[in-house]
């Protein structure tokens, strides 16, 4: 039986494209076959690009590989895009009814960079509505399932991208991460995901949830794919006012570097409660592996960790309520048929267009920003963030890395976020 192309590591795919053992057309054909077979069950994709467009792009990429004129290592590689990033010719829904018919007039910068380097945008993936959630159950379009166990959630909010990669329905993918929305679904689906440093990757064309926290990042089957994609999308963008003016790095060249002598911090506070026994065992095994490779691991007390979750939710929901105020039924997106006057239309549009989780976070954000509570909650949360940042700088002055479990537990059952929401928020 012929071994499947996309069972292999991304590095193997590149090597075989170079030698001509495989073509971009065969890679695309296999990806589309996986989608046809498994996506009716998993529901990872909200929309797919037209097949004839994809085939034409793959043929062009193959010719470039054959003549050694390929644009980059992602030339001809199928890439899935989370549906809160703009791709011309496809709707950007953010998993919400309120944007069900929104067709953006421009590409997000990260999408433009992928296209410029020959990457094939295969489709838009499902997500928790406006990236608010950690299970992808809060999409108003459909519920994505975990490819390893369809009774479990894939994580969120980038659950569609994670499930697509895990089920080999794409080779590379983009997600967005505000408070774990790339890292957690990557862990739940057994793939590799990265939230880059804030500002390293352009947010232009990413629909905002919490502007001071959101960041686009790569998702793939292995770290090599992450490094390749990060090489493509990282860099300064004048269209993004939060973009970092940093020196361009080559992340692929950093792979395989020895970690002997590297200093790694571990926070004992993380293991006081809430971490499952299984995760503790796996994490301890990972630390033993790091030690065997020569890393120096030391426990470091980090009391500020107790303030991270409340500070995050105060800041994130406050910014979300501000960002989502633009959806009023006037400029674009869903508009209610109840239109006696502007107030009725606005109220009805938001009541009908937003899901429960989004409404909950808007209400909390409005409360935090309201007169009398702004200083008490929002300003104080910003001061706490500064304190956490200062404490982290002290730790990074002594250590190269901080090692933590990605999530406190394995993938949840469907519905668990409804009857135990606090557990999900803590995750």
The gyration radius over C-alpha positions equals 22 Å
Helix content: 25-40%
Please list the strands of the largest sheet in the order they lie side by side: 1-3-2-4-6-5
Task: Please state the average pLDDT score.
Answer: 94
Low-confidence residue ranges: none
Main β-sheet, in a few words? 6 strands, mixed
Instruction: Write down the secondary-structure element order.
Output: HHEHEHEHEHEEHEHEHHHHEHH
Shape descriptor:
globular
Description:
There is one protein chain. With 427 residues, this protein is α/β, with parallel strands linked by helices. It has 14 helices and 9 strands. It has a 6-stranded mixed beta sheet, with helices on both faces. Strands 8-7-9 form a 3-stranded parallel beta sheet, covered by helices on one side. Helix 2 runs antiparallel to helix 3. The model has no long low-confidence stretch (mean pLDDT 94).
Show the helix and strand layout.
Layout: H1 10-19, H2 24-42, E1 45-48, H3 51-66, E2 78-82, H4 109-116, E3 120-125, H5 159-166, E4 172-177, H6 183-189, E5 192-193, E6 215-220, H7 223-233, E7 263-266, H8 277-292, E8 296-299, H9 308-323, H10 342-353, H11 356-369, H12 374-396, E9 401-403, H13 416-419, H14 421-426
Parallel strand pairs: 2-3, 2-4, 7-8, 7-9
Antiparallel strand pairs: 1-3, 4-6, 5-6
Helix pairs in contact: 2-3, 5-6, 9-11, 9-12
